[in-house]
Design a protein that fits this description.
Layout: H1 5-15, H2 18-36, E1 43-49, H3 56-69, E2 75-78, H4 82-87, H5 90-96, H6 98-122, E3 131-136, H7 139-152, H8 158-170, E4 179-184, H9 187-197, H10 206-226, E5 236-240, H11 245-260
Parallel strand pairs: 1-3, 1-4, 2-3, 4-5
Helix pairs in contact: 1-2, 1-6, 2-8, 3-11, 5-6, 6-7, 6-8, 7-8, 7-10, 9-10
Length: 261
Protein backbone atom coordinates (compact mmCIF):
# COMPACT_ATOMS: atom_id res chain seq x y z
CA UNK A 1 0.00 0.00 0.00
CA UNK A 2 1.25 3.49 -0.78
CA UNK A 3 2.26 5.85 2.00
CA UNK A 4 0.11 8.91 2.54
CA UNK A 5 2.99 11.16 1.55
CA UNK A 6 2.12 10.46 -2.07
CA UNK A 7 -1.24 12.10 -1.54
CA UNK A 8 0.49 15.09 -0.01
CA UNK A 9 2.88 15.35 -2.95
CA UNK A 10 0.01 15.31 -5.43
CA UNK A 11 -1.83 17.87 -3.36
CA UNK A 12 1.19 20.17 -3.52
CA UNK A 13 1.04 19.99 -7.31
CA UNK A 14 -2.52 21.27 -7.28
CA UNK A 15 -1.80 24.19 -4.95
CA UNK A 16 1.10 25.51 -6.97
CA UNK A 17 4.46 23.82 -6.27
CA UNK A 18 4.21 22.17 -9.66
CA UNK A 19 7.84 22.36 -10.85
CA UNK A 20 9.54 20.78 -7.84
CA UNK A 21 7.03 17.96 -7.37
CA UNK A 22 6.81 17.24 -11.10
CA UNK A 23 10.60 16.82 -11.15
CA UNK A 24 10.33 14.45 -8.16
CA UNK A 25 7.63 12.30 -9.77
CA UNK A 26 9.46 12.37 -13.10
CA UNK A 27 12.56 11.05 -11.27
CA UNK A 28 10.44 8.41 -9.53
CA UNK A 29 9.00 7.11 -12.80
CA UNK A 30 12.47 7.22 -14.42
CA UNK A 31 13.73 4.88 -11.70
CA UNK A 32 10.77 2.57 -12.29
CA UNK A 33 11.29 2.66 -16.06
CA UNK A 34 15.00 1.77 -15.69
CA UNK A 35 14.19 -1.04 -13.29
CA UNK A 36 11.67 -2.72 -15.59
CA UNK A 37 12.96 -1.77 -19.02
CA UNK A 38 14.47 -5.23 -19.52
CA UNK A 39 10.99 -6.78 -19.22
CA UNK A 40 9.48 -4.99 -22.22
CA UNK A 41 9.76 -7.99 -24.52
CA UNK A 42 8.74 -10.49 -21.85
CA UNK A 43 5.22 -9.42 -21.09
CA UNK A 44 2.11 -7.80 -22.52
CA UNK A 45 -0.49 -5.77 -20.67
CA UNK A 46 -4.15 -6.15 -21.61
CA UNK A 47 -6.73 -4.00 -19.88
CA UNK A 48 -10.22 -5.07 -18.92
CA UNK A 49 -12.19 -1.85 -19.17
CA UNK A 50 -15.75 -0.73 -18.76
CA UNK A 51 -18.02 1.66 -16.94
CA UNK A 52 -18.29 1.86 -13.14
CA UNK A 53 -20.36 -1.16 -12.13
CA UNK A 54 -19.89 -2.84 -15.52
CA UNK A 55 -18.91 -6.13 -13.86
CA UNK A 56 -15.12 -5.97 -14.23
CA UNK A 57 -14.29 -7.25 -10.74
CA UNK A 58 -16.79 -10.11 -11.02
CA UNK A 59 -15.45 -11.11 -14.44
CA UNK A 60 -11.86 -11.04 -13.19
CA UNK A 61 -12.79 -13.37 -10.32
CA UNK A 62 -14.38 -15.80 -12.79
CA UNK A 63 -11.35 -15.50 -15.09
CA UNK A 64 -8.95 -16.07 -12.20
CA UNK A 65 -10.85 -19.24 -11.20
CA UNK A 66 -10.66 -20.34 -14.84
CA UNK A 67 -6.89 -19.73 -14.90
CA UNK A 68 -6.43 -21.77 -11.72
CA UNK A 69 -8.74 -24.57 -12.87
CA UNK A 70 -6.89 -25.05 -16.16
CA UNK A 71 -3.43 -24.37 -14.66
CA UNK A 72 -2.65 -21.47 -17.02
CA UNK A 73 0.80 -20.28 -15.93
CA UNK A 74 1.49 -17.23 -18.09
CA UNK A 75 -1.50 -15.01 -17.23
CA UNK A 76 -1.73 -12.79 -14.15
CA UNK A 77 -4.40 -10.36 -12.99
CA UNK A 78 -3.92 -6.90 -11.49
CA UNK A 79 -7.00 -5.63 -9.71
CA UNK A 80 -7.94 -1.97 -9.50
CA UNK A 81 -6.51 -0.66 -6.18
CA UNK A 82 -9.92 0.37 -4.83
CA UNK A 83 -8.88 -0.73 -1.34
CA UNK A 84 -6.18 1.97 -1.35
CA UNK A 85 -8.65 4.61 -2.50
CA UNK A 86 -11.10 3.57 0.21
CA UNK A 87 -8.59 3.26 3.05
CA UNK A 88 -7.18 6.74 2.41
CA UNK A 89 -10.70 8.19 2.25
CA UNK A 90 -10.00 9.83 -1.09
CA UNK A 91 -12.70 7.90 -3.00
CA UNK A 92 -15.40 9.06 -0.58
CA UNK A 93 -14.16 12.65 -0.69
CA UNK A 94 -14.19 12.57 -4.49
CA UNK A 95 -17.85 11.59 -4.67
CA UNK A 96 -18.77 14.06 -1.91
CA UNK A 97 -17.27 17.01 -3.77
CA UNK A 98 -16.05 16.34 -7.33
CA UNK A 99 -15.29 19.98 -8.02
CA UNK A 100 -12.90 20.20 -5.09
CA UNK A 101 -11.36 16.72 -5.14
CA UNK A 102 -11.45 15.47 -8.76
CA UNK A 103 -7.93 16.63 -9.63
CA UNK A 104 -6.19 15.09 -6.64
CA UNK A 105 -8.20 11.88 -6.98
CA UNK A 106 -7.31 11.36 -10.64
CA UNK A 107 -3.63 11.95 -9.91
CA UNK A 108 -3.83 9.43 -7.08
CA UNK A 109 -5.58 6.91 -9.35
CA UNK A 110 -2.78 7.30 -11.89
CA UNK A 111 -0.11 6.81 -9.23
CA UNK A 112 -1.71 3.76 -7.61
CA UNK A 113 -2.42 2.02 -10.92
CA UNK A 114 1.21 2.37 -11.97
CA UNK A 115 2.36 0.94 -8.65
CA UNK A 116 -0.12 -1.95 -8.86
CA UNK A 117 1.37 -2.90 -12.24
CA UNK A 118 4.87 -2.38 -10.88
CA UNK A 119 4.21 -4.74 -7.98
CA UNK A 120 3.14 -7.44 -10.42
CA UNK A 121 6.19 -6.85 -12.61
CA UNK A 122 8.37 -7.41 -9.57
CA UNK A 123 7.28 -11.04 -9.58
CA UNK A 124 8.29 -11.53 -13.24
CA UNK A 125 11.96 -10.57 -13.02
CA UNK A 126 13.15 -14.17 -13.23
CA UNK A 127 10.71 -15.31 -15.88
CA UNK A 128 11.87 -15.91 -19.46
CA UNK A 129 8.43 -16.67 -20.88
CA UNK A 130 6.10 -14.11 -22.40
CA UNK A 131 3.61 -13.23 -19.70
CA UNK A 132 0.16 -11.67 -20.01
CA UNK A 133 -0.94 -9.19 -17.34
CA UNK A 134 -4.65 -8.38 -17.35
CA UNK A 135 -5.32 -5.11 -15.54
CA UNK A 136 -8.65 -3.96 -14.18
CA UNK A 137 -8.94 -0.67 -16.03
CA UNK A 138 -5.98 1.05 -17.70
CA UNK A 139 -3.97 4.24 -17.75
CA UNK A 140 -5.67 4.97 -21.09
CA UNK A 141 -9.16 5.01 -19.60
CA UNK A 142 -8.14 7.02 -16.53
CA UNK A 143 -6.98 9.70 -18.95
CA UNK A 144 -9.40 9.56 -21.88
CA UNK A 145 -12.55 8.75 -19.91
CA UNK A 146 -12.44 9.98 -16.33
CA UNK A 147 -9.87 12.78 -16.27
CA UNK A 148 -11.06 14.15 -19.61
CA UNK A 149 -14.74 14.00 -18.64
CA UNK A 150 -14.12 15.72 -15.30
CA UNK A 151 -12.04 18.39 -17.05
CA UNK A 152 -14.75 18.97 -19.67
CA UNK A 153 -17.31 19.33 -16.87
CA UNK A 154 -15.17 21.90 -15.07
CA UNK A 155 -14.43 19.68 -12.05
CA UNK A 156 -10.71 19.61 -12.89
CA UNK A 157 -9.07 22.99 -13.42
CA UNK A 158 -6.81 23.81 -16.35
CA UNK A 159 -3.76 23.86 -14.06
CA UNK A 160 -4.63 20.52 -12.47
CA UNK A 161 -5.19 18.94 -15.90
CA UNK A 162 -1.84 20.25 -17.12
CA UNK A 163 -0.21 18.71 -14.04
CA UNK A 164 -2.01 15.42 -14.71
CA UNK A 165 -0.95 15.34 -18.38
CA UNK A 166 2.64 16.24 -17.51
CA UNK A 167 2.87 13.27 -15.15
CA UNK A 168 0.94 10.95 -17.48
CA UNK A 169 3.35 11.70 -20.33
CA UNK A 170 6.33 10.85 -18.11
CA UNK A 171 5.08 7.31 -17.55
CA UNK A 172 6.88 4.76 -19.71
CA UNK A 173 4.70 3.23 -22.41
CA UNK A 174 5.49 -0.21 -20.96
CA UNK A 175 2.61 0.47 -18.54
CA UNK A 176 0.12 1.09 -21.36
CA UNK A 177 -2.01 -1.80 -22.65
CA UNK A 178 -1.21 -3.80 -25.76
CA UNK A 179 -4.94 -4.32 -26.20
CA UNK A 180 -8.26 -3.59 -24.52
CA UNK A 181 -11.08 -5.90 -23.51
CA UNK A 182 -14.17 -3.71 -23.32
CA UNK A 183 -17.04 -4.88 -21.14
CA UNK A 184 -20.02 -3.15 -22.71
CA UNK A 185 -22.68 -2.82 -20.00
CA UNK A 186 -25.74 -0.51 -20.27
CA UNK A 187 -25.60 2.36 -17.72
CA UNK A 188 -28.88 1.30 -16.08
CA UNK A 189 -27.41 -2.16 -15.35
CA UNK A 190 -24.26 -0.52 -13.97
CA UNK A 191 -26.44 1.59 -11.69
CA UNK A 192 -28.27 -1.49 -10.35
CA UNK A 193 -24.96 -3.23 -9.59
CA UNK A 194 -23.52 -0.16 -7.85
CA UNK A 195 -26.56 0.04 -5.59
CA UNK A 196 -26.34 -3.69 -4.87
CA UNK A 197 -22.64 -3.72 -3.93
CA UNK A 198 -23.12 -0.67 -1.67
CA UNK A 199 -19.47 0.43 -1.65
CA UNK A 200 -18.69 3.00 1.06
CA UNK A 201 -18.87 6.56 -0.25
CA UNK A 202 -19.82 5.50 -3.78
CA UNK A 203 -22.76 7.78 -4.58
CA UNK A 204 -23.14 7.87 -8.36
CA UNK A 205 -26.00 9.29 -10.39
CA UNK A 206 -27.40 7.59 -13.47
CA UNK A 207 -26.53 10.75 -15.45
CA UNK A 208 -22.87 10.35 -14.47
CA UNK A 209 -22.89 6.72 -15.64
CA UNK A 210 -24.49 7.67 -18.95
CA UNK A 211 -21.77 10.26 -19.49
CA UNK A 212 -19.05 7.73 -18.58
CA UNK A 213 -20.57 5.30 -21.08
CA UNK A 214 -20.41 7.94 -23.80
CA UNK A 215 -16.75 8.73 -23.09
CA UNK A 216 -15.90 5.03 -23.02
CA UNK A 217 -17.49 4.45 -26.40
CA UNK A 218 -15.57 7.41 -27.80
CA UNK A 219 -12.32 6.00 -26.41
CA UNK A 220 -12.98 2.56 -27.91
CA UNK A 221 -13.78 4.15 -31.26
CA UNK A 222 -10.57 6.15 -31.07
CA UNK A 223 -8.50 3.07 -30.22
CA UNK A 224 -9.89 1.25 -33.24
CA UNK A 225 -9.18 4.20 -35.50
CA UNK A 226 -5.65 4.82 -34.23
CA UNK A 227 -4.45 1.21 -34.21
CA UNK A 228 -1.54 2.45 -32.12
CA UNK A 229 -0.96 -0.63 -29.98
CA UNK A 230 2.49 -2.19 -29.74
CA UNK A 231 1.69 -5.85 -30.40
CA UNK A 232 0.03 -8.14 -32.92
CA UNK A 233 -3.08 -8.42 -30.78
CA UNK A 234 -6.33 -7.07 -32.11
CA UNK A 235 -6.78 -3.67 -30.53
CA UNK A 236 -10.21 -4.24 -28.94
CA UNK A 237 -12.32 -7.20 -27.87
CA UNK A 238 -15.82 -6.01 -27.07
CA UNK A 239 -17.80 -8.27 -24.75
CA UNK A 240 -21.52 -8.43 -24.14
CA UNK A 241 -21.98 -8.09 -20.38
CA UNK A 242 -24.97 -10.45 -20.48
CA UNK A 243 -22.97 -13.36 -21.88
CA UNK A 244 -22.17 -16.47 -19.83
CA UNK A 245 -18.98 -16.18 -17.74
CA UNK A 246 -17.45 -19.37 -19.14
CA UNK A 247 -18.08 -18.21 -22.71
CA UNK A 248 -16.52 -14.83 -21.92
CA UNK A 249 -13.40 -16.51 -20.46
CA UNK A 250 -12.97 -18.57 -23.63
CA UNK A 251 -13.40 -15.41 -25.74
CA UNK A 252 -10.70 -13.64 -23.74
CA UNK A 253 -8.24 -16.55 -23.93
CA UNK A 254 -8.79 -16.91 -27.67
CA UNK A 255 -8.22 -13.18 -28.07
CA UNK A 256 -4.97 -13.40 -26.10
CA UNK A 257 -3.48 -16.51 -27.68
CA UNK A 258 -4.43 -15.64 -31.24
CA UNK A 259 -2.46 -12.47 -30.70
CA UNK A 260 0.57 -14.34 -29.39
CA UNK A 261 0.73 -16.87 -32.22
Amino acid sequence: MLDLYYIYLLYLILIGTFTFISIFINWQFSCINCQFGNLKKKYKIISLDGNIGAGKSTLLKILNDYIIQYNIKNISIVEEPVNVWESTGILKKFYENKNQNAGIFQLFVLETLVHAIQDKLNTLNNSNDTHIIITERSLDSTKWVFAQMLYDDGDISYEAMESYLYIYNKIDKLYLPSATIYLNTPPEICNERIIKRNRDGEIISNEYLIKCDSYYKNMIKDIRNREHFNSNLSSVLEIDANANGDIICKQILNFIYLGLN
